[in-house]
Amino acid sequence: MSDYDDFKKRFKLLAGKNKSLVINTLSNIFTMRLIGNKTHGDLAEIGMAEFINQFMYDYKSIHVGKDLFRAKEHEEDIVIINEITKTKFPLSLKAYGDGPLQLSTDSHQKMFPFLEIQGKDIVDPNKIKKIFQSKEFGDFDSINVMPLIYDEKKQQCNIMIFDHRKAISKTQRIVYVGENQKFDILTGRVIPGKGRSHPIFMFVDPKGNYICEVRYGGASANALQRGLWTHTKNALSYFDSLTNGWINYSHNLTLVKLFSLALNSTEQGHKQANEILQKDIDRLKTL
Predict the structure, then answer these.
(1) Alpha-carbon gap, residue 157 to 154, rounded angstroms
(2) What range defines the domain where residue 175 resides?
(3) Domain assignment present for 260
């Protein structure tokens, strides 16, 4: 079992026994969407890093940050250290709505061009196996991603982990879907369809179901048009929920007020507030 696998198991156990702790932190994180649509993503990184430090006693986490570590080897947002074994591993946190989910940015634009060389409808099991074993797909199952998924209309959230190993074992076909095309699950054919502006390679299982996709990675592609993606609704059987399913969250308007006051108060006031907040967290630990 890898370090990340062990961590996921421990997190899921904690969420099962102390669901209120996870609900409280996720409610506060998604409340940040009231401040700005993209604010919650960055604050989720420091919020979840602190969650690990406060409530997962055998682990320590460090927020990597943005500016200081621009030239990062991995796509990590935080680094997690096992306090018992002293091993550490990177973790990428993503906060996405229930739908398309980016698993890797493929920043070196290796995956799509490599698949183009292999063909537009790949069904040979040996060829598919070699694709996953290639250096171009070396990061397919090596990036540790923890997606915080939310449904704002229902005010529900879920920590859903994509099962890369299952995806590899179940991929029976890799098919090219071009611009203004779509894959028809019923017939297994690529047919005309509006809306797609860039091509993809879709990974399909033996039942013809969607698993994931590699998006176009040319020079004109932005971050949303390249890399490895999946879909939380369409590939549900390829996810494991660390929160044991969807949980309800609520907005904390007091937290928004706290941020407003904090931005207009001094460091001395922040230190006093930190002491009060730590006492409250310590109280949660005893419940």
Answers:
(1) 9
(2) 3-251
(3) no
Quick one: the chain helix, strand, coil %, rounded to 5? 40, 25, 35
DSSP string for residues in 104-126:
E--TT--HHHHHHHH-SEE--HH
Q: Name the burial class of residue 178, with classes exposed (0-12), middle (13-18) and buried (19+) by CB atoms within 10 angstroms of its CB.
A: middle
d(CA 252, CA 256): 7
Handedness of CA 37, 51, 27, 93 (dihedral sign): positive
Cα–Cα distance between 14 and 4 in angstroms, integer? 15
How many structural domains are present in the chain? 1
Domain contains 268:
no
Q: pTM for this structure?
A: 0.88
Q: Note the pLDDT tens digit of each residue in 186-211.
A: 888 989 987 778 899 999 999 999 99
pLDDT, tens digit (0-9, with 9 covering 90-100), for 216-269: 877 667 777 889 999 999 999 999 999 999 999 999 999 999 999 999 999 999
Residue 266 falls within a domain, yes or no?
no
Residue 64 domain flag: yes
